[in-house]
């Protein structure tokens, strides 16, 4: 029993120590990443043409890169999230277009009440609607398609969405080099 307890303690200790190392490394990595991203962003702002979000650089000095140069592409990325405002879209789009881009789901809230009401028959639309719950969802793929084919104009959708910008970050990708021979 003592031997298995010692073995499990060793396993738990090793795993715990690795978790702590990873936690410390992640903290260090995030600190360095944030500092270097600010430095790269400042360089881009100061040295590149306005609106340029990418540049290339070669790592070719130091013992790691002296013989094995690395061609890198640096890109400043800022994600964009569009939130569509259905009420505003419905004000601006024709009924026909709305039917194409807005999916509606009808839910009967009180089925027994609906059945009783329909049996009574003199169906009044306003009374009928109180039994129905409508959920609307935008079909973004269809909206995009109609925009691309010119059935919806930029003017029609202008003001019908909110654009939220994410925090910018730097993406570094290594450019693959072709078959080069040593000189």
List the main descriptive attributes of the protein structure presented here.
7 helices; flat; 183 residues; 3-stranded antiparallel β-sheet; alpha+beta
Q: Order of strands side by side in the largest beta sheet?
A: 1-2-7
Structural class of the secondary structure composition?
alpha+beta
Beta-sheet strand percentage? 15-25%
- Biggest β-sheet: count, sense, barrel? 3 strands, antiparallel
Task: Specify the helix fraction band.
Answer: 40-55%
- Morphology call: flat
Q: What is the overall number of helices?
A: 7
Overall average pLDDT: 86
Distance between the termini: 65 Å
Number of strands: 7
Radius of gyration: 30 Å
Low-confidence stretches: 179-183
SSE ordering:
HEEEHHEHHEHHEE
Topology:
Blueprint: H1 2-47, E1 54-59, E2 70-77, E3 80-84, H2 86-92, H3 95-101, E4 102-108, H4 111-120, H5 125-129, E5 132-138, H6 140-148, H7 154-157, E6 161-165, E7 169-174
Antiparallel strand pairs: 1-2, 2-7, 3-6, 4-5
How would you characterize this protein structure?
The protein is an alpha+beta fold and 183 residues long. It has helices at residues 2-47, 86-92, 95-101, 111-120, 125-129, 140-148, 154-157; strands spanning 54-59, 70-77, 80-84, 102-108, 132-138, 161-165, 169-174. It has a three-stranded antiparallel beta sheet with strand order 1-2-7. A two-stranded antiparallel sheet has the order 3-6. Mean pLDDT is 86; it is low at 179-183.
């Amino acid at each position: 029993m003592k031997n298995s307890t010692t073995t499990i303690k060793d396993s738990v200790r090793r795993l715990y120590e690795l978790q702590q190392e990873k936690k410390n490394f992640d903290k260090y990595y995030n600190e360095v990443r944030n500092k270097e991203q600010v430095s790269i962003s400042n360089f881009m702002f100061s040295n590149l043409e306005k609106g340029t979000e990418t540049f290339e650089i070669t790592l070719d000095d130091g013992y790691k890169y002296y013989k094995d140069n690395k061609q890198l592409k640096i890109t400043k990325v800022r994600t964009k999230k569009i939130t569509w405002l259905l009420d505003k879209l419905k004000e601006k789009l024709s009924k026909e277009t709305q039917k194409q881009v807005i999916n509606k789901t009808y839910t009967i809230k009180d089925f027994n009440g609906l059945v009783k009401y329909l049996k009574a028959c003199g169906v009044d639309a306003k009374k009928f609607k109180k039994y129905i719950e409508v959920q609307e969802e935008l079909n973004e793929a269809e909206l995009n398609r109609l925009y691309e084919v010119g059935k919806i104009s930029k003017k029609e959708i202008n003001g019908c969405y909110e654009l939220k910008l994410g925090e910018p970050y730097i993406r570094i990708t290594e450019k693959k080099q072709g078959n080069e021979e040593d000189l």
